[in-house]
Write a structure and sequence with these properties.
It is built from five helices and three strands; from the N terminus they run E-H-H-E-H-H-H-E. The chain is α/β, with parallel strands linked by helices. Strands 1-2-3 form a three-stranded parallel beta sheet.
């Protein structure tokens, strides 16, 4: 099984009161244990590190050494997938659908 997580989900989980038992926490632990394939979009690891160390509100809550550990752990287990090329396909809503 594969799971794709983005920067906002990772940061949210880091500061969650239930980080270990949350859905994201369960997926991360399973990925670290080799039970899931963790996918990260190209650039997410770098973006995560940059946000954790450069944003004052986040940097005040997590030491740089812990940010480095988190990023290193993710980089070691995650497979990187390329970003979608732009322009992105348009999304539409079908208001009346009968099945």
């Amino acid at each position: 099984m594969r799971a794709l997580l983005d920067t906002n989900v990772l940061i949210s989980n880091l500061f969650s009161a239930n980080a270990v038992t949350s859905a994201t926490g369960v997926v991360l632990r399973a990925a670290l244990a080799g039970r899931y394939s963790l996918l990260l979009i190209d650039g997410v690891v770098e973006e995560l590190y940059r946000k954790l160390t450069e944003r004052p509100d986040l940097a005040a809550r997590i030491p740089r050494s812990q940010a480095e550990h988190v990023v290193r752990s993710l980089a070691n287990v995650a497979a990187t997938v390329p970003r979608l090329p732009e322009p992105y396909p348009s999304v539409s809503v079908i208001r009346k659908t009968t099945f």
